[in-house]
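Morning!

This is the sequence you dropped in the shared folder:
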Amino acid sequence: MQLANAWPFFKSAWLAAKKQALLTDRSFLSLFTDIVRCKFKYGTALSDYLLFNFMEFRDPKMREEYIFAKDWMQLVHNLNPPNDTPGFITDKVLAYKRFKKYFYRDVLVIADSSDDDICAFCDKHSTFYAKRALSYAGRDVEKIKVDPDDIDQ
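The structure's back. C-alpha cells below.
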C-alpha cells in the first residue's frame, strides 16, 4: 500500500469497524485489526471485506478462495485483448461472419441485407435486440418490437 492511500484506507476501516461492531457480535478492535490483517494478508479492499461478509466468515482457508479487487484487476488485464488484437475480436459483424457456426441464434447484418431479408427477419421475430458492431459492455443495445401494421415503413 502506498503512503498516499494509507490514511484514507485506515480512516475508512476505522469507520466501518465502528459501524460493524454495532451490527455484529464482534468488538471494534477485533474488526479493525481483522480488516487491516485482510488488507495485508489477502490484498482485500474494504469493499471486498464488507461485500464478502468477512466479519462473519473468519475461516482463513475460505478467505483464501476469494478473488479480491487486486486479483480481479490482474485477471481483467490478462484476459482482455490488447488494442492491436485482430478486428474480428472487437467487431461483432466480423466475429459473426468468422464464427457463424457457433452462433445459436439468428443474426441479421443490416449492411449486408436486402429489404426482403429485413422483412423476413421481422416476420420471424416479433421482438429482437439491435447492437452496434463496435460497441461493448452492453452499450448501444436497443430492444426492438416489430409492429406488423408498420413493417413496410
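Headline: The radius of gyration is 25 Å.

More detail when I'm at my desk.
O.
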